[in-house]
Each structure stands twice: as C-alpha cells, then as structure tokens.
Amino acid sequence: MFIAYFSQKIARYFFTLVSILLILGDILLVKYFATARVPLGADLLGYSISEIRHTLNTSGEISILPFVVIFLYLFMMSRVMVNHVYFKLKPWLMTVLTVLMFCSFLPIKQLNPDPSKFDDEFSLFAANNKLSFFAQSMSAHYLNKGSLNDKVFTFNTVVSSPEGNPFTYINPEYPFLHQETTPDVLGKYFNLGETPPNIVLVIVESLGRAYSGQDAYLGSFTPFLDSLMQKSLYWENCLSTSGRTFQVLPTTLASLPFGDHGFAELEDKMPDHISLISILKKQAGYSSSFVYGGEAEFDKMDVFLNRQGIDQIIDSRRFGADYAKLPVSANGFSWGFGDREIFRRYLEDLKAKPDTPRMDVMLTVAMHSPFVVTNQEYFNRKFEERLVGLKLSEKITSFDRQYVKELASVIYFDESIRYFFSEFSKMKELANTIFIITGDHRMPEIPISTQIDRFHVPLVIYSPMLKKAEKFSSIVTHFDITPSIIAMLNRAKYIKRPTVASWIGHGLDNSVDFRSLQTYPLMRNKNEILDLLSADKFLSNQTVYQILPDLNIEPRGGDNRQKQLKEDLDNFIRKNNYAFKTNNLIPDSLKPYTLK
Questions:
Q1: Whose C-alpha in 26, 88, 98, 402 is 20 to 30 A from the C-alpha of 228?
Q2: Entry pTM
Q3: For residues 284 and 278, is the Cβ–Cβ distance under 8 A?
C-alpha cells in the first residue's frame, strides 16, 4: 500500500513476491515444527550448511512430494496474484491499513501466547505463530548480541549460597576464575584402592527422565538401567546444560561455558582451559579414548577431544567390517553404528590395551531421528510388552503409542547397555572401574512437557567399589560432574588438583531431599542462552517459574525476581563473551594442567 502511492505496478509485484515468500516460509516452518516438535528460531544460525544437510538426510523426512506441492503452490499463487483484479480504497483508508500493517510487526507481548495458559511446552509452541516466532528469535538474537557485547559485566567476589560451595572469584580479567574448593562428596561412597580407578563415561543420545527411571511420567522404558540405578549413586533430578548434543562433551568433561554457538564450535580459537582428561593425563598418566557410532567431526567433537589430549578417537570410519550400521532411512542415510555395536567396539579395543588407568568416553546414536534400529519389529513388540506391563493410565498409554519407534529405540539402548555390562563383568578391569551414565538431553521428537523438561536427564554413577547405593533428589547439572570427580581423586591422592579453576560447576549435591542451591545458565540450542536455573526458580523466555520437587514447574506471575534473574543471565552472557573474546578463561599458571 505504501509503495502504491508512487507506483501501482511496482506495488503489485512487491506484494505478490513478499506474500508468496511469507506464506511459503510459514509452510516450511510448520513442516519443521511437525518434524522436530520445536519451532525453528535463531538456532538455525548455529549450524553449517554441511551439518544441516547431514541432519536432513538422516532424518528420513525428505521426499519428493513436499517439493511438488511447493512448486504447485508457487505456480498457483503467482498466477492468481498477478492476474487478480484489485478493488480501490479511499486514500485515508489505505493510510490507516498501512499503519496497522506496520504495527503488526511490532513485538507486542500481548499478541504472544501466555505460557501460564498451557499445560505443557509443546502446546505452547503449537500455539505460536511459527513465522512470528522465527522473526522474533532472529531479531532478538542480533539485538541482544550487540547489546550484551557492548556492556561491561558485573564482577562479584563471592557468588552462590553458603550451603552450595560458594565461589571466591579472584580477578575480573578472568571472570570465571575462582579458588578451587569443591568438596569431595563422592569419596565416602567408594572403597578406592592404591591404583587410580578407570573412569568410563557413557553419554546416551536423548536419554530423558520422561521415559527412564522411577516415576518417569511417560513410564520407564529402561528396565535394565532402572535396576542398575538401584545399585548406584543416582541423581533423579539432573539437568543437561544444552538442549542438543553440541555442548555435552565440553560440559561433562570440563564444566566449560558456552561461547557463541557452543564451546567446541570455536575450533582452533577455543580459549585455553583445563579438563578432566587433561588433568588425569598430566597428573596420573591416564590414557583415554572416545567411541562414537557417527562421524566425530559433527558438532566439532573431534576438535574438542584432540584439544584435551585424547589418545584415540574411534568413529564410524574406524569400526571395521565385522560391525553393522543401523538400518538406513528412506533416503539411504544412517547416523552410523548402533549402541550395541558401539559397546562391542569399545570392549574389543579395551582388550588390546595395557593395564594403565583409563578415562574413556562413549556417545550413543540410536535414539535419534529417524529412530530406525536393527531388528525393528522385535523392538516394536518389546515396546508393546513393556507398555502393557507398566499399567499406565489410559491417557499416557494412548500418548505413548503415538511414538512407537522413538520409545522402541529407548528399549534398544537399554538392551544394548545390558549387553555391555554383561560382557564387561567378564573382564578384570571391572573391579577398578567407575561408570558414569547420563543423557545428553531429552528427546524433542516426543512432545516436551515443560521448559525444564528438555534438560531433565538421569545421572547414574556405578562401580563394584561402591560401599552402598543411594538416590539423591537434589538438582545437579552436567557442570557438576568434572569438579566432583577431580575432588574425589585429589582427596585420594591420585592427583593434585589446581588451587584455582574456571569451571562453572560447584560439584554434585548429595542431598537425598529435594533442594536446589546453584545458579546455572542453560543453552537450549546453538544460538540462544535463554534459560537460567537459580535455586528453586527457573527463568525461561523471561518468564519465572517455581520448580516443584517432581521437577514440574509453575509460572510465577508478577514474581519480583524476574528482573534480577534476567540481569543474572545477561551478566553471565557478558562474562562468557568477554572471556572468549580475550582468551581469558585461565591464566598462564594453569597451563601445566593443559595439553596445549
């Protein structure tokens, strides 16, 4: 309408082009939401073209039909709009409509769905206009990025509650550097010997608490892992620090901040840092390996691990002819080797290794779109048997049956890890090994119930050296794993930890009762840090929620802490940006603990 004041012809072509593109964009965004179960936003900017292509190919969602439909739509809309006969409006009415249309672009909060009106996050996202969500997410990303880079962060010497191992920060030039005083809460549970223990970290793709462990609200489809929890140290309220896999290695192995798109994405520009692998290698002569069924360069995992001094990376190109990949999707693509094959490949490699202390990491792949596993029909039947045996409510049972492939892949993982422990029990290394099992994030393809549910994963620490099993209800995160392992090994005199550190985690909380002591940021995708855990409050998309003992959340309308929590989150982002821009995570005095 505005252009029509000057040229009717240009206005017509402009209107035709923009209308077609807007509607086409909305169609594609709705299609993305239907597949991913979360709307697309600024996270799109965090992935390279090759990563997007790889994910699309393995998703099994690409077929010729949508492109045929899109082509027909473009052809039809072009013909209709170009040939359409426009009716005339009075100039004053054109002016009013033009102003209203421009106003519709304004981010008016009242036009967005109110989170408190929805039972779960999926319903909230379903109610969002997908094009509006995408536009607001992109604009917020660029506007906030500029404002947060320009402002100076606030430096406080002491942060955290008195009960939660408060950090004493040292130097504003190194905003995350603090005195290292993480208490050893794990040592009292173990009968550690003279030889340093082997540590095996199993990171399970998409293992969420929604469908694993006691009181899983969708029912637990991991019966073996559930039985292992009964013999382990088990945190039922553990949170991953990212909503995708990209940050799980930097967080679990080094308790690192995020950078712009995840720590590993910085590649050769990663700030200097210390990690569990580098400390164990330098201090106690540990060897290390990483086994992954896909390609290790995805999410720059290989670059990050090589920076830690990893001795061996076994990915899909190094499995060998005796191993079978997961069945391919309709497009002929596969993530790589399934969970059982990953465990089998690790065990084969372990048999050939000398008797030195080891720090090994495995990352599974099967619980990922397209959710196609070996012997699919068998696991579909196992899913149905498990579902009937759980005796869930009719509503939950009906819901679960909509996600047969997804939950069948959970059962496939569970049987794979049963096989792993069965075979490992035959090896002499078992007696001196500590196993850490956790999920990288919750599966988004099954609708997520709340804003915190995407991060809710189990954390299991098992070993034959355990004196007793215990379940903890305190909230912990992946940030807390490395500081606690280092504290235990330091107290047992296997290593000497540094007197200062820059990791984010305060250490695991071994309270059997529900409580939350720390303040931690969470990064739901590669481009947005929108969530903050702060004691028993949770900030998500600028809405404050009360965290309940079952890790459900309730919106707190008019909560006077919203401004403070938003400032805390922004201040973390400023510190994060400063530390990465200046390479000021650790000073030169900590370089002996690194492998660089």
A1: 402
A2: 0.86
A3: no
